[in-house]
Amino acid sequence: MPNKVQVPRISDAVAASLERRILEGSLRPGDRLPPERELASELGVSRPSLREAIQKLASKGMVQSRQGGGTYITDRLESTFFDPWQDMMGSHPNLREDMLEFRRMIEGQAAEWAAERATEADRQRLERSFAELNAAFEGDDLEKRSQADIAFHQAVGEAAHNALLGHLSSALLRLMQDNIRLNLGELKTVPAASKLLQQQHAAIHTAIIDKKPHAARAAAETHIDFVRETLAQTLRSVARRQTAERRLGGDYSVADSLIS
């Protein structure tokens, strides 16, 4: 007798569908899944099949139930990269330069692919995130600036339509979040620098919208080169200020003279 055709279980197909949404970024870390009845109806499956699918995802650590109700997407795909490197960044500040060098490579490629592959929906999202970024730069809220900056670069990363690159880009941006906030805080006092950042973002945005891959890569790399240099200057400036404040307070040592 010939082997029987293996029909996939409905719960396996549902789990694969939800997993695909997580991989492509349609479902993001922290997102809550719709209520069971609503989601089962949307997917055209029974509630028991949906529950079984969610249990499969939970066993992989992709979703978790929270106290008070609801099932949420975890950050497992990014945290496995993010967590150990976050600790290392705190202990080894020189890793920032390596991270920025890696970010230059990742974001240059992301911008090039985004210019080649972005759909109309991607371009609409990029337009929206770019408008929000410009609005944030017009205000004085540093947190809004840094969040809008990260959202813009994440929109570029996901428009590249490479799941690994999208999640790696997100993890890198999370790793660099404190540095991004620090850098923007310092640059906010220098109008010319803020203007340059806006022009660099505009160049990335325009090249992707105009479907110019090489120009998009060049614009992204130019932006990261500027960030690397200004961040290095910012960290030196902060260190000098802290040293001066310690001296003013009488907490001065030979070590301070050697590092300043």
Describe this structure in words.
Helix 5 packs across helix 7 (142-159) and helix 9 packs across helix 11 (213-248). The chain is mostly helical. Mean pLDDT is 83; it is low at 253-260. The protein has two domains: 10-73, Winged helix-like DNA-binding domain superfamily/Winged helix DNA-binding domain (Arc Repressor Mutant, subunit A, Orthogonal Bundle), CATH 1.10.10.10; 77-248, GntR ligand-binding domain-like (Four Helix Bundle (Hemerythrin (Met), subunit A), Up-down Bundle). It starts with 9 loop residues before the first helix and ends with a helix. It contains twelve helices and two strands, in the order αααββααααααααα. Strands 1-2 form a two-stranded antiparallel ribbon. Helix content is 76%, strand content 2%. The protein has helices at residues 10-24, 36-43, 47-59, 76-91, 95-117, 120-138, 142-159, 163-175, 177-187, 191-209, 213-248, 254-259; strands spanning 63-65, 71-73.
Give the key terms:
2 domains, 12 helices, Four Helix Bundle (Hemerythrin (Met), subunit A), single chain, 260 residues, mainly alpha, 2 strands
| Count of alpha/pi helices | 12
The number of domains is 2
Q: What proportion of the residues form beta strands (DSSP E)?
A: under 5%
Order of helices and strands: HHHEEHHHHHHHHH
Side by side, the strands of the main sheet go 1-2
Alpha-carbon distance between the two ends: 82 Å
Largest sheet: 2 strands, antiparallel
Mean pLDDT: 83
Number of strands: 2
The percentage helix is over 70%
Structural class: mainly alpha
